[in-house]
Design a protein that fits this description.
mainly alpha; 6 helices
């Protein structure tokens, strides 16, 4: 989340009293970031997990691990370690439509052999099969 997005959220959603409280905490040196609070939660959840594991309460141990996972995920998002938008790579060269379009271009270039050779050479360079 960008700093600008957080500022817009603050400006659009924080009540004036809450904003004053936040400023007062910063001035008093008591302000904690959301990340700091999440880190504290993770520490507490680790203690809960250890206690429930030692008491052999599997259900509560699993619940504490699930909650810890959620806290860690949110921390990773805040730090930018975890992207919410997947990176997708599309290789159009291997698509049937591209092969068909390339075939049409090459067919039309039959009557222009020099141009066909120059374009073919440049395509091979792009594919890495030859050097310029």
């Amino acid at each position: 989340m960008s700093k600008q997005a957080l500022m817009r959220h603050r400006d659009n959603h924080l009540t004036p009293n809450l904003a004053l409280l936040t400023r007062a905490e910063v001035a008093a040196g008591n302000a904690r970031t959301v990340y700091d609070q999440l880190a504290e939660n993770v520490e507490r959840l680790e203690l809960i997990y250890e206690a429930t594991r030692q008491s052999r309460n599997a259900h509560l141990a699993i619940l504490s691990l699930r909650e810890k996972r959620g806290q860690l995920e949110l921390m990773a998002k805040i730090n930018g370690e975890l992207r919410e938008t997947p990176a997708v790579a599309v290789n159009i060269v291997q698509s049937p439509e591209f092969a068909e379009a390339l075939g049409i271009v090459l067919e039309e270039l039959r009557s222009h052999p020099a141009l066909r050779e120059r374009i073919g050479h440049r395509m091979r360079v792009l594919e890495g099969r030859t050097t310029s």
